[in-house]
Amino acid sequence: MTHSAPYRFVFTALACEAKPLIRAWSLKKTSDSSAFSMYTGPAGTVVVSGIGKTAMAGAVAYALALRPVTNPVLLNLGVAGHPEYPIGHVCLADKVVDADTGRCFFPQLPFDLLCPTASLITSSKPNTAYLQDALYDMEASAFYETAVRFGSSELIHCLKIVSDNPGRSIAAISEIQVESWIGTQVPMIENVLGQLQGLRRQIAVGGGNDWYDACLARWHFSVSNAGKLKNLLARWDLLTKHAEPDWDPSTLRSAADALNWLENKLAEMPFSLRETDGG
């Protein structure tokens, strides 16, 4: 890969999950890897957080504060358990649930899916009961909750490879196996990142400029809120296929009202989830 993609970040909990991409992208360990192991190159950056929600949240915040990027592409890559899926099966998360807090997150998938989707449950301890029809891991909810503070939700996703199920114990997993399973899925990982790069370009070009100018003329926005408005209008343009916001500006009294209206409408907006045979 020869293009420069400093906006692509992949976060893994384990070094063995990161090695296939480090090798495929010819990444080099950075000099600022004292807090978390970071590897970078023209193809992007891979960060190894360590196991657990606290470690993952810290790694995401550290990497994105160290390398601030407008609309970064953010992917949590790793293994997960599932009650039915076979070992090596790959899925994108369409819902992320924090089992400890009950908080739910819904990654938006407005692009062509070349692998199935599934709910993903994150807990503080390994889950071997597999009580729900879902993937199970220990980092995704912290990744997502932290990542959305730095970017657009359309560009933030979790891609998981099944490593254990009722027929194969989590205790039987080896680092060599994990590296092999993820290595096999490097083309799929690249495809997902390619889809997100396409979305990023749409968001960057984006529509809504007339509305953006009208909002700035009507209300006072701080520099940071003006940037937030631009991102929200670009997301609206992407998800509605260029429809104009159906608001009445006369009912909104401030910049904060306008931002809240857009955020609430985007949160309520339905989007299509299409599953295909893949993995």
Strand and helix map with partners:
Blueprint: E1 8-12, H1 15-24, E2 28-29, E3 37-41, E4 44-48, H2 53-66, E5 73-81, E6 90-98, E7 104-105, E8 117-122, E9 135-137, H3 140-147, E10 156-164, H4 175-184, H5 186-205, H6 209-218, H7 223-239, H8 255-268
Parallel strand pairs: 1-4, 1-5, 5-10, 6-8, 8-9
Antiparallel strand pairs: 2-3, 3-4, 6-7, 6-10
Helix pairs in contact: 1-4, 2-3, 5-7, 6-7, 7-8
Q: Kindly state the number of beta strands.
A: 10
| Distance between the ends | 23 Å
Molecular shape: globular
| H/E topology pattern | EHEEEHEEEEEHEHHHHH
The largest pleated sheet is described as: 10 strands, mixed
Q: Which spans of ≥5 residues are poorly predicted at pLDDT below 50? A: 272-279
The computed structural class is alpha/beta
Q: How confident is the prediction overall: mean pLDDT?
A: 87
Per DSSP, the total helix count is 8
